[in-house]
Each structure stands twice: as structure tokens, then as C-alpha cells.
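Whiteboard transcription, Tuesday session. T.W. wrote the C-alpha cells on the left side:
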């Protein structure tokens, strides 16, 4: 019978050290902004222009950054190649930020799963009980039944 090796779970201290290293990477982030850069080939609309002829590719592509702001799509055009290159670096840095953020959340979930629960004396405080009851009522909860009843 072939036995599979199960990797040892990372220790809490090793995971916390990994988190510290990851947080340091956030400090190295430069200017960033969300969005997607696309190239739009356009025609100027002048009937005598070369772009009005059939099978003509049109004018040079116009590059645009599209993003959402407060639920609305906002588009920004780049008049010069230098502004396009700057925006490309900023969008790439935003993608790096998103990747680091996802890694941080995953790492924190692993830390939370391994961190032991601190035992406290006593049970729920009155304030905690009140908040829980209100939350259960607000969301339709258990409708007054004890937890696990009816299963």
C-alpha cells in the first residue's frame, strides 16, 4: 500500500513571519490605479480622409483607461505616449496590489484557523447577548427556537 505524505501545517509563528514579509511588500508599492487600458481604432468622419475608404485601418489607435467610479464608467484618453506608459505602470502596480491583497487574506485565514482560542472566565456579556438577539431577529434567524432544534 502506497502512503501519501501529508504536508505538515505551518506553525503559527512561521505564518506570522510570512505575513510580516508580505506586509513589507505593500510598502514597496508605487503609484497605482485601477482600470483597463484598451486601444480603440477610430475614423475621423471626414469624407475625404484616407480612413473613410473601404478596408482602410483608420487612424492610429487611441489608448484609453476605463474604470468604475461610484458605479459609473469613467474613460480617460492619453494624448502622449509618455502618459500612456505612466498609466500602464500604474495599472500594473494596481494588479500587483490586488495579488498581494489576495495573498494577505489567504495567509490571515490560515493564521486565524491556527490561532488558539483564548479562554475567558464567564459566558456572554449582557451587551453581547443583546447584540446577538438583535442580529438574530434582524436576519430572521432561528425564530425563537433553540439552536439545533428540529434537526
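and on the right, the sequence the group agreed on:
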Amino acid at each position: 500500500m502506497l502512503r501519501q505524505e501529508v504536508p505538515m501545517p505551518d506553525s503559527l509563528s512561521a505564518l506570522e513571519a510570512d505575513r510580516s514579509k508580505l506586509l513589507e511588500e505593500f510598502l514597496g508599492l508605487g503609484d497605482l490605479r485601477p482600470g483597463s487600458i484598451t486601444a480603440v481604432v477610430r475614423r475621423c468622419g471626414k469624407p475625404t480622409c484616407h480612413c473613410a475608404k473601404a478596408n482602410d485601418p483608420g487612424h492610429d489607435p487611441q489608448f484609453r483607461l476605463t474604470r468604475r467610479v461610484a458605479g459609473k464608467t469613467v474613460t480617460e484618453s492619453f494624448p502622449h505616449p509618455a502618459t500612456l506608459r505612466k498609466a500602464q505602470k500604474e495599472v500594473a502596480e494596481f494588479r500587483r496590489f490586488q495579488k498581494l491583497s489576495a495573498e494577505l487574506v489567504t495567509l490571515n485565514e490560515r493564521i486565524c484557523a491556527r490561532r488558539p482560542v483564548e479562554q475567558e472566565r464567564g459566558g456572554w456579556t449582557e451587551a453581547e447577548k443583546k447584540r446577538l438577539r438583535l442580529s438574530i431577529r434582524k436576519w430572521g434567524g432561528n425564530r425563537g427556537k433553540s439552536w439545533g432544534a428540529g434537526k
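Someone added at the bottom: The two ends are 40 Å apart (CA to CA).
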